[in-house]
Amino acid sequence: MEGPAIQVSGINKWFGEGAARTHAVKDVSFDARFGEMLYVVGPSGSGKTTMLSMISGILRPDSGSVRIEDADIWNLSSDALADFRLHRIGFVFQDYHLFPRLTTAENVAIPLILQNQDWDQALEEAARNLEVVGLGNRVQLAPVKLSGGEQQRVAIARAIVSRPDILIFDEPTASLDGDTGRNIVRFVREHILTDHRCIITVTHDSRIYEFADRILRMEDGRLSGIERSQLDAQ
Amino acid sequence: MSGILKIAYRLLVNDRAKFAALLVGITFAVFLMIEMTSLFAGILSRSSSTVINVGASVWVMDPAVQTVANAIPLPDYVLDEVRSIPGVKYAVPIYSGSALLKLRDGAYQAANVIGLDDTSLFGRPIMTEGNIQDIYADNAFIAIDDSEFYKLENPHIGAEFELNDHRGVIVGVAHVASSALFGVPTLYTTYSRALQYIPNTRFTVSYILVEPKTPADVALIQSRVTAAGYLALTREEFIAKISRFYMFQTGIGTNMMLMTLISFIVGLSISGQTFYTFILENIDKFGALKAIGAKSRGLVTMILFQALFVALTGYGIGVGLCAVLIWIARLHLPDYAAMITFWNLGLAFLMVMLIAAISSYVGVRKVLRIEPFDIFRG
């Protein structure tokens, strides 16, 4: 696809009031492209999660703009923004946030159901996406009966089921052992990332840096550097 | 059912422990509320049993009368005065009092005695044994086959008893619409025999039963009776007056209301607390749904649906349990007065909806306050 997927221009975010006021994200600007796996890394409290929330339409910046394919998402109404997230962005949360009382297929089908798709069709599509992440035989199981890695895959299936063009991963390997984490990210890199999709990942885990196209380093709310990864260099 | 409601349903019923706790809370509250109010409805209905059974359109009485069981006798001339009011089709006296019977086994048994107007027998019961004309025979009484009938030793025609040293003979058995409140059997006889057998005050007419020529004449009859210093009430007004007395002047109503309120609070406490815990346990999931793109009104719809589903299911089970209990109780306890009315069902329904509304309000507030950003922050 032509042009950047996401254009972030001079976004700032403050929290708190008076003496406790904190400048969490300071004048951050960057672009992310389709077909790219972009990492945001940095120490705890560096503003990674705050920035990720602002570019995914969850937390309104105090200044600056976030443009996704030429549309400033923060000019949208709250309902339109919710629709935008529902159709264009897929989320994989650090703790997965799967409903333990629903089957894996029902969990995966949630974005489609929120889009008012037919229940049975949504479940069929969910089953297809569970096949994609290698869990075709786990459709009827409750998430609590799956391993951490499998739950992560269910979360990925839920993120991609509505075919969003932007995927947001929050600490995707934080709850997994080293090998499982690497395997998951490799799987995402090889099977989920496409030319029409941009994946932004916040991580602390240096063992998976090799899978990134570019790495944005944040420190004290500022973008301290942009690196091309080894993979990109190859 | 839309997809989001299906999700809400599955989240609710698949959490079996909480779903069961919610159902138990609501069912228990509904059961107690309906049981209490049904008992009260039964008491109120039975307190007006004579008014219901006699069935006169208008009752003339002393203004100080509070219940039909405590008649204040009227002078005979009031009957003539009422008969002279334009718009009165006919007016007849009725005797309503109590007597102590000595049964054949020597036991004493209190009884209600209704003395019907000798000429018209207005207010006569429906005969199941014998002929109503036999009421004119010597010493004749008709026994009412209600829940207290057995206290007369289940008499048949020809059974005898003593009343104030008078011989009484059962000449028929009859049925009435409503049993009496105070657990005593009822006998019907003629007005003149009632006066003859039972000691009386100077005035003897308990009530005057009036049939207006047209319903429009009731207002005139009431105003003329009031002008004469007495009170004329329609059947419905008399029942309402009796009900008000039991509700507000006996403590029964206050106690029933208190018990109903306590049932409501117990139900609200159990289901409110459980529902709140249910929401709290899923709050991060609701936050995740918001992040994914669920709108607040969609999440509110889910919570309201869950609360409504639990409320209606618990209501249905509670009503069913209460109906079964009353049915079983009536099989074994003929005096059991409870009756489920639309009023009981409506009140319990309103209270259950209130429980659902309050429980869901707490959940809705919690879900509306959760920010998707909190999910990212962990």
Name of the CATH class of chain A: Alpha Beta
The CATH topology label of chain A is Rossmann fold
Envelope shape of chain A:
globular
- Contiguous uncertain segments of 5+ residues of chain A: none
- Strand order in the sheet with the most strands of chain B: 2-3-8-5-7-6
| DSSP strand tally of chain A | 10
At the fourth level of CATH, the homologous superfamily of chain A is P-loop containing nucleotide triphosphate hydrolases
Helix segment tally of chain B:
12
Given the helix and strand composition of chain B, which structural class is it? alpha+beta
- Determine Rg of chain A (CA atoms, Å): 18 Å
Give the rounded overall mean pLDDT of chain A: 88
Number of strands of chain B: 10
Structural domain count of chain A: 1
Shape of chain B: elongated
- The structural class of chain A is alpha/beta
Q: Roughly how much helix do the residues of chain B carry, as a percent range?
A: 40-55%
List the helices and strands and how they pair.
The complex is a heterodimer of chains A (234) and B (378).
Chain A: E1 4-15, E2 22-33, E3 37-41, H1 48-55, E4 63-68, E5 71-72, H2 78-88, E6 89-92, H3 104-114, H4 119-132, H5 148-160, E7 166-170, H6 178-192, E8 198-203, E9 214-219, E10 222-228, H7 230-233
Parallel strand pairs in A: 3-8, 3-9, 6-7, 7-8
Antiparallel strand pairs in A: 1-2, 1-4, 4-5, 9-10
Helix pairs in contact in A: 3-4, 3-5, 4-5, 5-6
Chain B: H1 3-14, H2 16-47, H3 49-54, E1 58-61, H4 76-83, E2 88-102, E3 108-116, E4 126-130, E5 140-144, E6 160-163, E7 166-175, E8 186-190, H5 191-197, E9 207-212, H6 218-227, E10 231-234, H7 235-248, H8 252-281, H9 283-292, H10 296-332, H11 342-369, H12 372-377
Parallel strand pairs in B: 3-8, 5-7
Antiparallel strand pairs in B: 1-9, 1-10, 2-3, 2-6, 2-9, 4-7, 5-8, 6-7
Key attributes of the depicted protein:
heterodimer; A: 234 residues; alpha/beta; four-stranded antiparallel beta sheet; B: 378 residues; alpha+beta; 2 domains; six-stranded mixed β-barrel; 12 helices; 10 strands; 18% strand; elongated
